[in-house]
What we know:
By secondary structure, the chain is mainly α. The protein starts with 14 loop residues before the first strand and ends with a helix.
Amino acid sequence: xxxVACNKSxxxxxxxxxxxxxxVYDYKCLSMTKEYYSKNLSELKRAWACPSCTNxxxxxxxxxxxxxxxxxxxxxxxxSCDDLLPNTSGTDSDxxxxxxxxxxxxxxxxxxxxxxxxxxxxxERFGELLDFKLESIRVALAADIKKEIxxxxxxLKDEFTRTTDFLASEQRDxxxxxxxxxxxITSLESENIKLRTEMNELKRRLQTLEKALDAVTxxxxxxxxxxxxxxxxxxxxxxxx
Length: 241
């Protein structure tokens, strides 16, 4: 057989069967002590109901063995160490009851951080200690989470700063290169304008020289031709003689 709560195999000497739904449970999963289980086994076998059936019965305001069982456990848990020890001091029952009531009242009114023995911790006291422990854990977790988040944010800030610095440096380099290129282009444009001016001046001079040469040619070439003709005739006459 397997326990409905933990789904583990149960020894026959440790099981309980619900009188309503016939579900099988291990008494350990029901927060029962072995002493309580052994002492009330016959009653539990006869009328015990599982927590699910007990919750349904509670909504109908019905008393069940499970409710009585947890009430008994609560009463036993509220007992102090003095209640569990045998009465060896010779005091009467009234004195012991008064002492028990005083201890319970003092424990319920004060919340001390000094560790106590398990025997003197009631359900209420256990709840207070559990709440205190959970609050301590919550505060510690919140501090750790805040620390981790702060560290992550700082890392992101550093990385973002390094990235922006790198981009700014690259932008400055590009701007410097663009400025150098602009300066070079301006210089080349000036050189081009200067060369064009010089070329135009040379063209103008060349045209002037060409015109002057044409004028000289038209003026002196006929005269040179006539002199050349006379020289040739003189040379021929000399050759005949």
